[in-house]
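Key result, reporting period 2: structure in, sequence out.
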């Protein structure tokens, strides 16, 4: 089968190539075979390509975690309501950059007819992650305030809207340009009482903006950036605040005031979704299926697509993600 491979196992963007001699995946218990029609890019793909993101044990070395396609094979005895020929989408721990994929039944959704394969493929990682970091790890409660760093990222766009569904008082979001500030402002949901305040980190200090609007600070911070923000995050959290570290795009070594953490009873939480057990991911899938997917289909929640590429354009797709200029998902189709 065809799949995206990496020359020498890791490297820069130009190391990506289409390999037409990759072996078909072998199905494990609880897995079905998918003919992939589209997959989406995620930040972890860039890190894995560069050898900086170790995949969970037993996971395919092929890049990609979210996909859309058609069920080709369901082994006898597999407990699932799915049928061969069903159009589906879902989340895997690896292997989505390929024509064929072994996918666990716990994290598969039937694709609504209203959604294209391109849109469906771009949903899982974004909304699973937003749900996990905000509600499960961040323990966000109705009426609390949120700061999301990299707020114009795909996960940021999702989390900003999800916080409004839980009646956030304030949502602050750091972004890299004034145009992204305007994009974040457009995430205001109909009839939402939440005040959304985007912050251009190149011209504004987020601590000052937050103190001006919410002197007591924020309850939850979700941070995919890491090092450069950590000390300031601690300073702006309320009593019993939670700082969720979900990535580290900058320095991983930081110094901070332990006394402030103790006196404010802060919780510093690190998390990834990819390494979580299937039962945990299945729990997140149930939330997404019940509370989020219907709102995406109806248009009540925005889920923007930045650009769609063909498989042969995988290098260009990765270059676009590396540019950090996108505000929606990047998707690749496999004809």
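The corresponding designed sequence is given below.
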């Amino acid at each position: 089968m065809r799949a995206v491979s990496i020359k020498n196992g890791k490297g820069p963007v130009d190391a990506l190539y289409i390999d037409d001699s990759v072996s078909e995946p072998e199905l494990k218990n609880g897995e079905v075979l998918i003919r992939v029609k589209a997959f989406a890019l995620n930040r972890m793909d860039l890190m894995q390509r560069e050898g900086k993101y170790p995949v969970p044990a037993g996971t395919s070395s092929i890049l990609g975690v979210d996909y859309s396609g058609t069920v080709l094979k369901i082994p006898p005895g597999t407990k699932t309501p799915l049928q061969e020929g069903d159009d589906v989408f879902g989340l895997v721990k690896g292997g989505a950059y390929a024509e064929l994929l072994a996918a666990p039944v716990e994290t598969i959704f039937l694709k609504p007819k209203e959604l294209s394969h391109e849109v469906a493929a771009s949903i899982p990682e974004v909304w699973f992650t937003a749900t996990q970091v905000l509600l499960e790890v961040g323990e966000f409660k109705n009426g609390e305030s949120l700061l999301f760093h990299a707020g114009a990222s795909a996960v940021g766009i999702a989390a900003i809207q999800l916080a409004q569904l839980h009646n956030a008082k304030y949502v602050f979001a750091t972004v890299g340009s004034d145009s992204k500030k305007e994009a974040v402002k457009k995430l205001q949901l109909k009839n939402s009482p939440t005040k959304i305040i985007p912050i251009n980190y190149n011209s504004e200090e987020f601590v000052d903006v937050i103190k001006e609007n919410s002197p007591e600070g924020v309850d939850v911070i979700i941070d995919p950036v890491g090092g450069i923000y950590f000390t300031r995050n601690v300073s702006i959290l309320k009593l019993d605040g939670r700082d969720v570290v979900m990535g580290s795009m900058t320095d991983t070594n930081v110094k901070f005031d332990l006394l402030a953490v103790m006196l404010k009873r802060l919780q510093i939480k690190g998390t990834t979704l990819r390494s979580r057990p299937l039962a945990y991911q299945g729990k997140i899938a149930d939330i997404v299926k019940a509370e989020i997917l219907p709102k995406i289909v109806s248009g009540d929640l925005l889920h923007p697509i930045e650009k769609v590429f063909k498989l042969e354009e995988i290098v260009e797709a990765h270059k676009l993600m590396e540019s950090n200029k996108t505000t929606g998902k990047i998707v690749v189709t496999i004809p």
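Residues 99 and 225 are 32 Å apart (CA to CA). Residues 127-270 form a domain with the Rossmann fold fold (CATH 3.40.50.720). This case is discussed further under Risks and Mitigation.
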